[in-house]
Design a protein that fits this description.
The protein has 128 residues and is mainly beta. Strands 1-2-10-5 form a 4-stranded antiparallel beta sheet, with no helix packed on it. It has a 4-stranded antiparallel beta sheet with strand order 4-8-7-6, covered by helices on one side. A hairpin with a 2-residue loop joins strand 1 and strand 2. It is elongated and about 55 Å long.
């Protein structure tokens, strides 16, 4: 997903949603979060950067884990200058299928991290 603005091109290179935004919309949750099963999603991609653009900004590598270690997320982007490519490694692990409503505050924070990471942007700058 990309959007040109002036001399920049804004890209959202993670093309999957490991978690949906509605998981964090409510301040209070009265029922549990129930995934069908524990899961691990890994998104690996390499993008050829368009000719005439250079990488201007990309997110820093991040690894976040819930306090109870049931959810982990990590994302690493690597700029391969010689090949003019961007490599992405994004992984989410949810180690249990049921999160009680009482744990919502704790899990909401980690779920928000996942959503923020999967929506992170890369900025390319047009060169003359």
């Amino acid at each position: 997903i990309g959007q040109p603005i002036d001399d920049s091109l804004y890209l959202q290179p993670i093309l999957i949603d490991a978690l949906q935004g509605e998981l964090v919309e409510d301040d209070l949750r009265l029922f549990p979060i129930d995934f069908a099963y524990p899961f691990r999603q890994v998104y690996l991609a390499t993008f050829d950067l368009p000719a005439g653009y250079v990488l201007d900004e990309m997110p820093e590598p991040i690894r976040v884990e819930s306090p109870d270690r049931t959810v982990t997320v990590q994302m690493v982007m690597q700029h391969k200058e010689v090949e003019h490519q961007l490599a992405i490694n994004f992984a989410v692990r949810v180690g249990t299928s049921l999160f009680p409503a009482e744990q919502y505050d704790m899990q909401r924070e980690i779920f928000q991290h996942v959503i923020d990471i999967q929506e992170s942007m890369v900025v390319l700058r047009k060169i003359d």
